[in-house]
Design goal:
InterPro entries: AceGlu_kinase-like_sf, ACT-like_dom_sf, Asp/Glu/Uridylate_kinase, Asp_kin_monofn, Asp_kinase, AsparK_Bifunc_asparK/hSer_DH. This protein is an alpha/beta fold. 38% of the residues lie in helices and 24% in strands. It is built from 13 helices and 17 strands. It has a 9-stranded mixed sheet with strand order 3-4-2-1-7-9-10-8-11, sandwiched between helices. Strands 13-14-12-15-17-16 form a 6-stranded antiparallel sheet. A hairpin with a 3-residue loop joins strand 16 and strand 17. Helix 2 packs antiparallel against helix 3, helix 2 packs antiparallel against helix 5 and helix 4 runs antiparallel to helix 6. The radius of gyration is 23 Å and the shape is globular. 40% of the residues are buried.
């Protein structure tokens, strides 16, 4: 069995959905499970609904109207029969969103976020499943929340592998299945999410539990490139990458592969293919066992909107284990993701991602116990397999605030 994952860009409009059909007809869809993300920028639109719910409820109708209009446009382009069942099914999902916003009593932002944002995937898979049926491709729509069970750490949940494995065993491998990325459910059957870009991870979870032959992530790029083309002018396709190398790249922030995706695949040695949905016959990139990296060229990774903090003790005493453990506890409490650490005898520097917006409260806590200097809106660049030319290309024209260098990897924090 194969698992295919289609992201938001691959289903952003009616023509993109038709292209998914083209991909399936080109590469085959027997014994295949499709994992599909929300269409286009729907997750962002759903986040606007959540923000309106907490900040200005009068804006909710217009935010939901934008979502309805966008998806209705896609549905109208895909279905000539305006009495098709998809219109009713879509309305039911929108009614569920409105209903939740009325009856919900929880003030927990992360809980509300997961209950609302997850509808992007439920809507996209409902539309695509109906369209596949329309063009003669029989398929089985699955609610992934019935299969992937998690704890209740909303927005960044942890998978209960034992329960998930038991549930996934019920999936019929002999038919084309379609389900949602990004989502799971907790013990109370409330929706949970696996973190932004978590659909790749969903594909890996299901592949692991199904003992799949392979996972293919369909992207709008030829495969895994040595740099993000949004930020670097010249990029090169990586033909083969080992699991270990891919995990390193993902850890440092390579955007093509979700950091959690590779671990379950590696455990069962399930190959991962990253291919172009525009050119499905092209080989793309294969991630597998013992492949190293080919070609071996410098790989550039950038994380924007980072925060660099330098902490030192108020009395110039050493920054030792007690201080550092206290700092990391605060990072954990405020959900601050640490991307780079560097320490000396009396100072401790750290580059972090303020993903959940807890920075100001964190700084207030830190400044009560340490001397703190911080820089916001900095960029963290990582070069794997760096050479002098690659390093010079980054340093040139940038103010380097911090540099850390190892045998294979160099990291720079720059303004």
């Amino acid at each position: 069995m194969r698992v295919f994952k289609f992201g938001g860009a691959s289903v952003k409009d009616a023509e993109a959905v038709k292209n998914v059909v083209n991909v399936l007809q080109t590469v085959g869809y027997e014994n295949t499970l499709l994992v599909v993300s929300a269409m286009g920028k729907t997750t962002n639109a759903m986040e606007e609904v959540v923000n309106a719910y907490f900040k200005n409820k009068k804006d909710i109708p217009s935010k939901i109207s934008n979502i309805v209009e966008y998806h209705n446009g896609i549905i109208n382009d895909l279905f000539e029969n305006k009495q098709h069942k998809i219109y009713k099914d879509f309305k039911v999902l929108i009614d569920e969103i409105n209903g939740f916003l009325v009856w919900n009593k929880s003030p927990n932002y992360n809980f509300v976020y997961d209950q609302i944002v997850g509808y992007g995937e439920l809507i996209s898979t409902t539309i695509i499943s109906a369209y596949l049926e329309k063009v003669g491709i029989a398929n089985n729509w699955l609610d992934v929340r019935n299969y992937i069970k998690t704890d209740n750490s909303y927005r960044d949940t942890t998978v209960n592998w034992e329960r998930t494995q038991a549930n996934v065993a019920d999936i019929d491998k002999k038919v084309l299945n379609i389900t949602q990325g990004f989502l799971g459910s907790d013990d109370n059957n409330f929706t949970t999410t696996l973190g932004r870009e978590g659909s790749d991870y969903t594909a890996a979870i299901l592949a692991y539990c199904l003992n799949a032959d392979s996972v293919t992530i369909w992207k709008d790029v030829p495969g895994v490139l040595n740099a993000d083309p949004r930020y670097f002018k010249e990029t090169q396709l990586l033909n083969n990458i080992s699991y270990r190398e891919a995990i390193e790249l993902a850890f440092y922030g390579a955007s093509v592969i979700h950091p959690k995706t590779l671990q379950p695949l590696q455990r069962k040695e399930i190959p991962l293919h990253v291919k172009s949905f525009l050119n499905p016959k092209d080989p793309g990139t294969t991630v597998g066992k013992g492949m190293g990296i080919e070609p071996k060229v410098p790989c550039f990774i950038v994380k924007k909107n980072q925060v660099l903090m330098k902490l030192s003790s108020l009395d110039f005493s050493f920054m030792v284990e007690n201080n550092i453990s206290e700092i990391f506890k605060l990072f954990h409490d405020f959900k601050i993701k640490v991307d780079l650490i560097q320490n000396s005898a009396i100072s401790f520097s750290v580059c972090v991602d303020n993903k959940f917006g807890g920075l100001q409260d964190l700084l207030q806590q830190l400044k009560s116990k340490f001397k703190v200097v911080h820089h916001e809106d900095v960029s963290l660049y990582t070069i794997r397999h760096f050479n002098a030319q690659a390093l010079e290309s980054l340093v040139n024209g940038h103010e380097v605030l911090l540099e850390q260098r190892g045998k294979e990897t160099v990291q720079l924090v720059v303004k």
